[in-house]
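Morning!

This is the sequence you dropped in the shared folder:
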Amino acid sequence: MEEIKEKCAVFGVHGKGLEAARLAYFGLYSLQHRGQESSGISTADGTRLYCHKDMGLVAQVFSEDSIKKLHGHIAIGHNRYSTAAGSKLAHAQPILVANDAIALAHNGNLPSTAALQDFLKSRGHDVSDISDSRFVADAIAEYVKDGMTLEDAVRKTFPLITGAFCILILSKDKLIAIRDECGIRPLSLAQLNGGWIVASETCAFNPIGASFVRDVEPGEMIIIDENGLRSEQLKPGNLKLDVFEFVYFTRASSELLGRSVYEVRKKFGAQLAREKRIEADVVIPVPDTATPIALGYAREAGIPLEFGLGKNRYIQRTFIQPEQHLREQGVRMKLNPRDSVIRQKRVIVVDDSIVRGTTSQKIVRMLFETGASEVHFVVSSPPVKYPDFYGIDIAKQNELIAATKSVDEIRDFLGATSVQYLSYQGMIDAIGVPESQLNTSCFTGIYPIDIRERAKEILYK
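The structure's back. Tokens below.
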């Protein structure tokens, strides 16, 4: 998928006898795909909080020494990709407030922070140059300062939060998880040796031996302390899981709404093949998300599947900027075409989406330069026509190629022989859950959580 990133991942641990920091490390490692700019872990031992965070991937940020300094049986962790506040250490999470007595980690995005800002201004806060996550943390801290328990402070803050959020809050002896009333971003609960694990995706459970219990419900608050786990519905739920979790973000080994993401993506591919017949010699995926899609497509179409694009798995986030020649190489640094698979072949290349179109254009050009006789670009989602305000970095509509061009114009821009999108209904049918349980705003322009002042940025055609 091209240049589109989810905001972050969260992971929480609570359990006597558990090495919380070590478990959080491996949990975040499993969730690295959801955020690759910064990583952090805060822990608690019943007396105080500890924290370590920095810019970079999980394996770059943490060492054996740093993990050993994070004492305690409770932890929250965070991987971040910035969408609103920029990329710098000051915005890395978990956020510590209330004289380092409370830590907070947030997955999602708040299109409007007006209510939070008004509240904090009334308490004398300077609200300039801080993230939406920090607004939430500071509001909770203000209520705790008033003498409230942590859960009471969360209850009071919840109505001020407008947008998509899965939030973990840590105190010296307590872990709290909350999810917005539409459940835009996923959040799941598991058990491990009598303790509890909370994570953005179920793929984080298996590597640490945790057993999935259930999803955290939309609008729910879960409180975990020495007395165990208890739950409270802060707002009636109206499930609207972001469909992009199925299309792209979630790892294929995870489950969403009881569905295997891997199997859903294979169904996307099969549905694509049923919707339009293309005469071709080979089907190749753009690695890695599109691999199960291409598998489903190839099986349904009866066309051989080949891995014609190799991915350099060691090109990850780095602090060293490439020199000009390497910058011009662009996609070739990440994807290597295999001549024997492509040359003189009619190629169907499968991807999960076309967002801005620039990377897709480079892939098409690279395939033709490698010797493909035809390149058919097949996409397992409908055209992305509307911006996202819930935690994906596609917030400018004029940057979305499908918002300004027809399918034929997109084909011409890419230089492809043909372009095919999965139909909207085909996508819904392949997922296998009611449309009413999904947020499809990027395709429809219908936003289930009020985007308030951001609505003026939307152009409907």
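Headline: Confidence is low (pLDDT under 50) at residues 1-6.

More detail when I'm at my desk.
O.
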